[in-house]
Structure formats: C-alpha cells, structure tokens
Amino acid sequence: MAGVSRLQYSSEIRLIRVMCSGRVDLEFILRAFYNGHDGVFIGGCKLNECNYVTHGNYDALSNTYISKKIMEQIGLDPKRLSIEFMSGGDGILLAKVIDRVTQQIKDIGPLGQAEGMDKQALQVKLLAARKLVPYLKLVERERLRVPERSESAYRDFYASDEMTRLFDDLIGEKLTTSQIISLLETNNKPLSVSDIADKLGLSPSQVSKHMNSSSRQGLVKYDTDSNAYARV
Asked: 3-class SS at 14?
C-alpha cells in the first residue's frame, strides 16, 4: 500500500509493505487518509494466482470497493484510492502504475481542500468511518460477499443497485450517525441542528432524524439553555 504525501507532489510515494494484499485492512486505508495522505495505492498479486489458499487479493479488492463507497458518502473523491494486480516480475508495469496514480492524485489536488472540505470536518468524517471498521468487517463478511471470485463479478456487484441499497440500509445511516457523534465528541460546546448540518454538509432534516434516534438511545442530550445538542 502506498500513500502520496499531502506535503509534497513528486514522483515519490510512501510505500508500506505487507506480505499479502489481503492484510490491507479497512482501518489501514482510512487511517492513511486520516493522517493526511492525498492518495492510497494498493498493489496485489494477480487475481487467481495468489500464493495462499485464502486468495487475500480478493479481500483487498472488496475492501477497496467498500472504502470507495465510504469516501463517496463522506464527500471524498474515490479516485484517491487505487488498486492494481500484477506479478512480482512486473517491475516496469509497477513503475508506470505508480507514475499514473501519482499524476492522478496531483490532478485531484490536496486532500479535503480539493473537495471543498475544511480540515476539522474531514477529520471528523474519517474518524467516524474508522470507528465503524469492526461493524463494516461484519457486514462485509455476512452480507456483501460476492459468490463468484472474479474481477468482473466484484466490479458488477459493487456497481449494482443491490449494493447501493445494501450500503444505504446497512452502512449509510450508521455512518451519518457516527459522523454526528464524532463531531459532538470533538467539539467544546453543544451544537444546534443547523450548526451540525453546516459543519458536516448534511441537511437539517437528516440531522434532526439522527439526533432524535441518538437521543432515545442515550447517546446525546439536548441542552435547553442553548437549544443545542451535546454528547452524553
């Protein structure tokens, strides 16, 4: 896995080596963006040519698609995340891919800034996503497994209306709630519905819906003096 540093734009990218791309956890990807990297590149062995019976490169592919969905949900350009599969002898191909990925990230621009998002909002959104990683792993294992192990099957499933529905039902709502809770945890004072909506780029009706639910669950409390919500 590699991240393009937010502080410089050159042909150099930071590389993090792991034995198998299947060990590239969702947390690794989200943490890289949380730590300020403008892009993440995952390189794995060719699909169906894995050295291990687990075929972990398909897990890496699944994690990449899920991460891209999360990035879209929180307002980040999903093209900041790339994955390619090649053999150990494809050194020239690797160099070309890294050059292409680096240029792509340069064209997109600095993380958050290019998306019109301030640093605090970006950190809150990524922190919210990271908190959901254990749940995301459970959902992926139980509801988002692709029955056929082929690149086209994974691509078609994650681009399907079924996947969009499953993501909205199983992940989208929880991710929105997690963003609101994370914002309240990092804020020094209670926030009104309009404040939360402005900071997170949500509609006031979305925020009200989630605040009512979170209040019933005892996750937040309403401050009558300031007409605002705070974390319990």
From this structure: strand
